[in-house]
Design a protein that fits this description.
Elements lengths: L1 H32 L7
Length: about 40
């Protein structure tokens, strides 16, 4: 049962990380299209 809980937590973390990367990429593209570049 503990293994199942760990796997679920890892999957949730992966989904959240993927969503953050996707949002960051979309925001960068939108800023670039508006002529504003976000410095890293």
């Amino acid at each position: 049962m503990f293994v199942v809980a760990v796997v679920v937590c890892l999957l949730v973390f992966a989904v959240i990380a993927g969503a953050d990367l996707l949002v960051a990429n979309l925001n960068s593209d939108e800023l670039s299209s508006m002529g504003v570049e976000k410095k890293p």
